[in-house]
Amino acid sequence: MKYVVLIHSNPQPWGHPTIDFTEVGRSIPADEREAMGKEFDAMLAELSASGELVSGLALDAPSTTRTFRWEGKRPVSTDGPYAESKEQLAGFFVLDCATRERAEELAAKFAGPGDIIELRPEMIF
Length: 125
Fold this sequence. Notes:
Blueprint: E1 2-9, H1 23-26, H2 30-50, E2 53-58, E3 66-71, E4 74-79, E5 88-96, H3 100-110, E6 115-121
């Protein structure tokens, strides 16, 4: 079954990896951040080798967003994200896991300083 790992964050300025651009992430010594980055890269390599990593993308700043809504009888577009929250969607990974437990185990590994991770299963229809 496929799962999406959604990474919500508020890096200032916007950038990736988010640990380098969040207040809590910048408070971690550079050598520790570097070690965490190497661990994360190793995890992605493992998931890629096992076939569990389907894809992933880092997303550009919310200010580059264009939002489309249906109003009346037509779509209307506006600048900026829909969400009126501090944290924004910063990126995502798609995993293909045998069980929900495995997906949850992996999702926990995506959690980093200043990030909120959401795990959502694919809807089958």
